[in-house]
Amino acid sequence: MALVETTVDPGGTGDYTSLNAWDGAEATDLITDTDQHVCTVISTTDAADTTTLALGSDWSSSITYSLTIKAGSGEEAIKTGYSTSRARLEVDDGECITIAPFTSGHYITFEGLQMCRTYTSAGYDEAVLTDGMAAGDIVRFLKCRIKVENNTNWCVHDRDADDTLVFKGCIIGGASSSSKCLYGLEIEGTAYIYNNVIMHCDDAGILVNAAGTATIKNNCIRTDNDINNSGSVTVQYNCATDDLDTEFTETTNVQPAGGDWDTVLNDSDNGDCTALTGGAEENAGVGPTTDSDVPTTDIEGDTIAGTACDIGCDEIAAVVTGLLLVHSGMNGLGNYQFNGNQMSGGMNA
Predict the structure, then answer these.
(1) What local confidence, expressed as pLDDT, does residue 321 receive?
(2) pLDDT at residue 336, as a whole number
(3) pLDDT at 348
(4) Counting Cβ atoms within 10 Å, is residue 291 exposed (0-12), middle (13-18) or buried (19+)?
(5) SS3 state at 182
(6) For residues 104 and 63, is the Cβ–Cβ distance under 8 A?
(7) Contact predicate 261/281, CB 8 Å
(8) What phi, psi does 258 have (nearest 5°)?
(9) C-alpha 212: how far from chain center
(10) How far is CA 124 from the centre of its chain?
């Protein structure tokens, strides 16, 4: 099995200047080729990739022979806001990504990417669309930022009852409290929705249709109608505007103190989803020791561990306290001294 690596840079230093051009040249049957393909997206000039990526029948992939599209080091989505100086796929009045039937199987991972459907006119369309996938097909969105700028548009629209979508450590929704999307996620198939922030949605943060099944855990859901469910859902350990415990007969969900999201996220009105110490989200989520589907790192790579974690995409960094040791030189025995306390071993300790 070979690893095929390519680079996309709208600034011109990569193998291709757009994901669309990359797809046109590189699409292949990874299963027959027995390859894995990793495409890294960078932006040396801060320019956005502005052409829709339409993944379709020229590809085949599987868990073993998979396709990954990721942001390069230092180009990843960040918790403090949508960055115009990092790699991003930004399409005006059009989908950023569409995923149609492959020749055989889908196993795709998008990691660290920013995606934005910018707005000129109303459309009732989406930033990401999946349409025509089959049973066993899996698409994962890890640590991505997905936004749209108008309340007639979806962030992610899943039209397939047989597929599986995974969202972990993402920030999904409208641009701000004054520039909302229609839906954050609309789910027709199966979805695992863990440790995300879903915000600024006009109709619902998560819409699960009658055929849909969704596991929704450890998410900050800041919308007026958090979850609209007609399917089958598990809703636990979320921090939401609505009282999810009453709505879904649970006991593990929480709400911001006094309904004030500024006690939970630093400035989510304007896209900053940094978790705040002392908020309702802190240590209120289920950790990976208890639920193996919980990610083990947050949007910026900090470790998530143990039986509990912070709700949302950002794990509050642990504060290490202890004795401050001040080096005071070596004593006559050749041993180090710290504040008068001897540590044996001299130079070889």
Answers:
(1) 56
(2) 36
(3) 36
(4) middle
(5) strand
(6) no
(7) no
(8) 65, 15
(9) 20
(10) 23
Backbone angles phi, psi at 85, to 5 degrees: -115, 15
Give the 3-state secondary structure of residue 22. helix
Nearest one of 330, 346, 209, 199 to 261, comparing CA atoms: 199
**Half-sphere exposure (CA, 13 Å, Cβ side) for 202?**
16
Beta bridge mates, 258? none
**pLDDT (tens digit per residue) in 109-167:** 999 999 999 887 767 789 999 988 888 899 999 999 999 988 888 999 999 898 999 99
Per the DSSP assignment, residues forming a β-bridge with 8 are 16, 41
* Rounded (to 5) percent helix, strand, coil in the chain: 10, 40, 50
Name the one residue in this structure whose structure tokens are 């992610």.
156
| Among 206, 183, 178, CA closest to 193 | 206
Question: Per the structure block, which two tokens stand in for 248?
Answer: 């879904």
Q: What are phi and psi of 23, to 5 degrees?
A: -60, -45
- Cα separation, 219 vs 26, in Å, equals 36
- Measured CA to CA, the distance from residue 77 to residue 178 in angstroms comes to 22
Q: Is the pLDDT of residue 243 over 90?
A: yes
Contact 142, 173 (CB under 8 A): no
Angstrom distance (rounded) from CA 199 to CA 2: 40
For residue 17, list its beta bridge partners: none
Chain length of the chain = 349
**Alpha-carbon gap, residue 175 to 303, rounded angstroms:** 27
Read off the pTM.
0.91
Determine the Cα–Cα distance for residues 191 and 214; give it in Å rounded to an integer.
Answer: 5
Q: How far apart are CA 7 and CA 39, in angstroms?
A: 6
Per the CB < 8 A criterion, the answer to whether 177 and 197 are in contact is no
Instruction: Measure the CA–CA gap between 291 and 234, rounded to whole angstroms.
Output: 13
Rounded CA-CA distance 102/30 in Å is: 11
